[in-house]
Each structure stands twice: as C-alpha cells, then as structure tokens.
Amino acid sequence: MDLEAQIQLLIDHAPRDGVTPHLVAAIAPALRAIAQKLRYSQYYILQNSEASWVLTTLSNRTNPGLEKRVIYAFPTIQDISLISPAGLDPQMVAKIVPVTHILFQLMALDPVESIVFLETPGKTTHTFEVRRTELEKLMQQQLRQERSPKQIPPDIA
C-alpha cells in the first residue's frame, strides 16, 4: 500500500468527531516526510497476547543508568529473531503495519521514546530511529502552518 493510501486510511478510520480527521489530514505531510526516508512501506511489529506492541528497554553501554524505551519495526518476519527472543514466544505475534500508522501510533505510546526501524533484512546494523520528540516537533510545525493565515498575494486587485 502506498503512502497516500495509508494516510487516507488513517483519515477514514479517524473518529468522526468533526476534528480528528482534519487533524490527521493536517499532520499528513509530517508523516509522509518521515515515511519517505524509510526503505519499506510496511513493517512487522511484535505484539503480545493483548495486542500491545512489545517494548524494549535499551541501556547505554558506557552509562548503564541511561535507558530508553523503544519499539522495533522489522522489514521481514524472519528479522524478529535477530533482536527479540520474545519473537520465539508462542504468546507473541508479529503483525504487519503500514509505516504511516506506526508513526501515527508513536504519538499515543507515551512510555515509548523511539521506533527503531530495521532497514536491511538479515542485519541489525542499518537502522533508522524516529524519536517521539522529533515527530511531535515536526507535527506541531505542520499544525502551525495549517493555522497560519494564508498570505494574500500582492497582485490580488
């Protein structure tokens, strides 16, 4: 599914409250901009038996007190076993998710600081990290642009 179809699906499935579909449409350029930097249009996300995304806590090697919580996005189902022994757990399931939906969900996953996209099947060395704070900043900029008054052309008369 291409990015435009993914974004339209997000808009179509947004709550019909008179606001949310417009907000999703307004932040769509931010979602698209990040998604275009990624190699794949969909990734596998590991989920537990309650359908919650599996969170991994990473510790800094030089400073073990520094930790961050991430979710891994895998290009193929086979890649899950490269990083996560949980992928072998029969209670876990890998679900394929469109990339724009992963980015959109990142905003709602409060304890998660980043999504780490594995970009090369069979390897863990080529990753692309999307930090929630950076995504929030990009979306806020997009919303400000949407709200700012449109420039009136000087030759309107």
Give me the secondary-structure topology:
Elements: H1 3-12, H2 20-35, E1 42-47, E2 56-59, E3 67-74, H3 80-83, E4 93-98, H4 99-106, E5 114-118, E6 127-131, H5 132-147
Parallel strand pairs: 3-5
Antiparallel strand pairs: 1-3, 1-4, 2-3, 5-6
Helix pairs in contact: 1-2, 2-4, 2-5
How would you characterize the overall build of this protein?
The chain is α+β, with helices and mostly antiparallel strands and 157 residues long. The chain has one domain (3-147). It is 34% helix and 22% strand. It is built from 5 helices and 6 strands. The chain has helices at 3-12, 20-35, 80-83, 99-106, 132-147; strands at 42-47, 56-59, 67-74, 93-98, 114-118, 127-131. Strands 1, 2, 3, 4, 5 and 6 form a 6-stranded mixed beta sheet that branches. Strand 2 and strand 3 (67-74) form a beta hairpin. Helix 2 (20-35) packs across helix 4 (99-106). The protein is globular, with a radius of gyration of 18 Å. The model has no long low-confidence stretch (mean pLDDT 89).
Q: How would you spell out the order of helices and strands?
A: HHEEEHEHEEH
Shape label: globular
Number of helices: 5
Report the sheet with the most strands, covering strand number, pairing sense and barrel closure. 6 strands, mixed
- Rg: 18 Å
The portion of residues forming beta strands comes to 15-25%
Q: Give the integer mean of the pLDDT values.
A: 89
